[in-house]
Design goal:
The protein is mainly alpha-helical and 267 residues long. The protein has 10 helices and no strands. It starts with a helix and ends with a helix.
Length: 267
């Protein structure tokens, strides 16, 4: 059911992007870097989703059975409540992971791949380095593992999270401001991809986390707004293979620069 939900709603978003009156800015379906972003979809999400669910299930069992920790899965809670709580926990975990990707210098080099997209649409959701994917898969579900959510509720919550992420990256101009007291909308997340506000609006589903930190920006980005990495909007490499190695190369260049600066200091 979860995969069907993601496929159906994701396809609906892609279709809506073809309607000129709903589009944020003109963009062809087969736009630049369509193939490489499709490869990100296949390698990071299609291949990784089942592995992530298996990891959460195994880790939750490891905490519950040997240690005797109470599991929400055994509490007979209503399914709707389990799904809602799982979605909140998953969104909080992803927010913390996202914050780390922006605050830790070497992690930022990997997260730059996601911010390198010069335009947003449903497919741009999936542009992220394998290292970022691994970090999110390991870190974001920690609260889910500790609480021990039922796997069916977790799978549905993960599907809803992914669909909302696709909506927020979409090339759509929708009248959704009435949702913004609670939920992140495409215009709010678009601001996160504008270089001057890239440290704001880190949330995916709920605006609560940015409100608590005072980092929520509510504005209407112009259709001609440049999107991308601060200081590298026109220079960052494009393409899956080049972006696979660029973060490692950038980290190496930064280390070499620090060594050179240290060696140049007067002894």
């Amino acid at each position: 059911m979860s995969l069907t939900l993601v496929a159906a709603l994701g396809s609906s978003i892609a279709v809506l992007e073809r309607l000129p009156r709903l589009r944020f800015r003109p963009s062809p379906f087969l736009r630049a870097h369509f193939a490489s972003d499709t490869l990100y979809l296949l390698t990071g999400y299609v291949a990784g989703a089942s592995l992530a669910l298996a990891y959460v299930a195994a880790a939750s069992r490891a905490l519950g059975t040997p240690l005797g920790l109470p599991r929400l899965a055994g509490a007979d809670a209503p399914r709707w409540l389990s799904v809602a709580l799982a979605l909140v926990a998953l969104d909080l975990g992803n927010y913390v992971a996202h914050w780390c990707l922006h605050r830790v210098d070497w992690l930022w080099e990997f997260h730059k791949v996601h911010h390198s997209s010069p335009r947003l649409d449903w497919l741009a959701t999936f542009r992220s380095h394998l290292v970022e994917q691994a970090l999110r898969r390991l870190m974001a579900p920690l609260l889910l593992i500790v609480v021990g959510f039922p796997l069916d509720a977790l799978a549905l919550a993960a599907a809803l999270f992914l669909v909302w992420a696709m909506l927020n990256h979409s090339n759509l101009r929708l009248p959704l401001r009435f949702l913004e007291p609670v939920l992140v909308t495409p215009r709010l997340h678009r601001l996160h991809h504008v270089p001057r506000t890239t440290e704001r609006n880190l949330g995916t589903v709920f605006t609560l986390w940015d409100r608590l930190r005072g980092t929520l920006v509510v504005a209407e980005p112009a259709a001609e707004s440049v999107l991308g990495i601060p200081g590298e909007t026109g220079t960052y490499p494009q393409g899956w293979a080049r972006q696979l190695v660029e973060p490692v190369a950038a980290i190496g260049r930064a280390r070499s620069a620090r060594r050179a600066a240290t060696a140049a200091r007067p002894g």
